[in-house]
Design goal:
The complex is a heterodimer of chains A (about 120) and B (about 110). With about 120 residues, chain A is an all-beta fold. Helices cover about 0% and strands about 60% of the residues of chain A. By secondary structure, chain B is mainly beta. Chain B has strands spanning about 5, 10-15, 20-25, 30-40, 40-50, 55, 65-70, 75-80, 85-95, 105, 110. The chains are: A mainly beta (about 120), B mainly beta (about 110).
Chain lengths: ~120, ~110
């Protein structure tokens, strides 16, 4: 089955600096790669996603890059702010044994923004 | 505003008890999912359902079962709770077909003593 590895597990960044979180996946058939943000006491929430026909996608201070050849994708947050402090999860889509779409998640990165 | 609700935020049960976790979504989504979240292990898929009365095992189904009698409701059942099932349980829903955004509930923190 799919294996998604995420690094680093913790990341501390000075406010205003950039943060980068990296993920690798194993299933070459994966074609959808979302990133979720989980704030304390809440469920994860989608912040950005990318499909395999695109190499990069931006949404204001957040960007995701995808390298299908190397099977890795990354989340970039620029001009970090205190409200960016949270746990971030990457995920990759896979096809189940019965042909249904599901997500495999990475192990998460706890991002702390230092004021 | 889309919404996924879970029946309890916190639950404490004893070993051997039968436990029901309920999830309701109001978005008319075809797909519903149950995950458990443990420190250092991320989110792991227990079971999912792609239609009413249809279900499929995820990556860690042992010790769990599910029920989906209505489109909006997806239940996770622990037939005989054990201490290693102490965890945060998250429910999610999404549209069917292509992989789409999953909307998560706030989670149920289950403690089995």
């Amino acid at each position: 089955g799919e294996n998604v590895e995420q690094h680093p597990s913790t990341l501390s960044v000075q406010e205003g600096d950039s943060a980068v979180i990296k993920c690798t996946y194993s299933d070459s058939a994966s074609n959808y790669f979302p990133w979720y943000k989980q704030e304390l006491g809440k469920g994860p929430q989608l912040i950005i996603d990318i499909r395999s026909n695109v190499g990069e996608k931006k949404d204001q201070r957040i960007a995701v890059t995808l390298n299908k050849t190397a099977k890795h994708f990354s989340l970039h947050i620029t001009e970090t702010q205190p409200e960016d402090s949270a746990v971030y999860f990457c995920a990759a889509s896979t096809i189940s044994n019965f042909g249904n779409e599901k997500l495999t998640f990475g192990t998460g990165t706890r991002l702390t923004i230092i004021p | 505003d889309v919404k996924v609700t879970q029946s309890s935020r916190y639950l404490v049960k004893r070993t051997g008890e039968k436990v029901f976790l309920e999830c309701v979504q109001d978005m008319d989504h075809e797909n519903m999912f149950w995950y458990r979240q443990d420190p250092g292990l991320g989110l792991r898929l227990i079971y999912f359902s792609y239609d009413v009365k249809m279900k499929e095992k995820g990556d860690i189904p042992e010790g769990y079962s599910v029920s989906r009698e209505k489109k909006e409701r997806f239940s996770l059942i622990l037939e005989s709770a054990s201490t290693n099932q102490t965890s945060m349980y998250l429910c999610a829903s999404s549209l069917g077909g292509l992989p789409y955004e999953q909307y998560f509930g706030p989670g149920t923190r289950l403690t089995v003593t």
